[in-house]
Q: What sequence folds into this?
């Protein structure tokens, strides 16, 4: 493993499962100290325990401002600095027609997937700015670019993440804070199983067959790309959306 993140401190939201777990693991392997953040206490604390002394867990709801403020404060207290924020926690929903979608579901998708990015930027940017720079990575989705039917709320929330990424990249470039998005295709995590709803097995096979490289994504694909974007090797990249999608959005 290349040691590209030594002396860096990262917050990884949704670190208790799927992409966030793999990103946390990869960051620690690359030398970072990682604050694993999740609303699921047992999953998140288990990940941090498994990753050892360079990881800690913080229980937070990324959609609630006080929770986000306390997360940023804790990262600075526990590790003495903050360099990287990975806004990865998110929720999806089973397929639902627009006229049957409850307002509460739309709000939940936007609060967890979009407002969280705003809140973490609001509270982490002053810390990164004072430190002379940093890297913010937001998990979007290919749904933002090629939406599937019955998925409008989720797709729109991820499109908002892409636009926030570009807007903040421009706004924060003068502070040496890079802001980029990862845009993953379907990967077999608990969230994806929720997203598929009924007939999951058949849909999984069809989706994998439509991806040019012939398989679903893996959390390790996301982890490798996140480590690159977080590292100084990506020092000239800001405002990009990196498709981690086996060619899906090119097809
Ligand atoms: N898996 C896919 O196919 C896929 C594809 C495109 C984009 N994504 C995006 O990737 C990200 C990670 O998803 P995943 O597939 O790893 O899902 P996952 O369900 O495995 O992990 C998501 C984690 O986020 C946590 N979380 C949810 N709401 C939270 C909140 N309010 N506060 C704190 N933590 C919260 C969950 O507890 C969970 O541990 C999400 O933003 C998702 O939208 C996933």
A:
């Amino acid at each position: 493993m290349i040691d590209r993140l030594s002396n860096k401190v990262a917050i990884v939201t949704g670190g208790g499962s799927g992409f966030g777990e793999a990103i946390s693991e990869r960051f620690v392997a690359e030398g970072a100290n990682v604050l694993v953040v999740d609303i699921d206490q047992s999953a998140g604390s288990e990940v941090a325990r498994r990753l050892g002394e360079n990881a800690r867990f913080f229980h937070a709801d990324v959609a609630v401002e006080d929770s986000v403020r306390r997360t940023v404060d804790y990262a600075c207290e526990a590790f003495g600095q903050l360099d990287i924020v990975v806004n990865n926690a998110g929720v999806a929903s089973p397929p639902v027609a627009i006229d049957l979608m409850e307002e509460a579901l739309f709000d939940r998708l936007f609060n967890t997937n979009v407002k969280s990015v705003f809140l973490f930027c609001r509270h982490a940017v002053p810390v990164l700015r004072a430190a002379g720079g940093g890297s913010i990575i937001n998990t979007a989705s290919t749904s933002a670019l090629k939406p599937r039917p019955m998925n409008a709320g989720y797709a729109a929330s991820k499109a908002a993440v892409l636009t926030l990424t570009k807007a903040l990249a421009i706004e924060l470039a003068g502070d040496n804070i890079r802001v980029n998005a990862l845009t993953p295709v379907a990967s077999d995590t608990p969230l994806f199983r929720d997203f598929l709803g009924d007939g999951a097995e058949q849909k999984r096979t069809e989706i994998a067959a439509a991806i040019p490289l012939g398989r679903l994504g893996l959390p390790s694909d996301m982890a490798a790309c996140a480590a690159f974007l977080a590292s100084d090797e990506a020092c000239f990249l800001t405002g990009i959306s990196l498709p981690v999608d086996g060619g899906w959005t090119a097809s």
DSSP finds eight helices and seven strands in the chain. The domain at 9-250 is CATH 3.40.50.720 (Rossmann fold). The first strand starts at residue 9 and ends at 13. Residues 103-131 form the longest helix (29 residues).
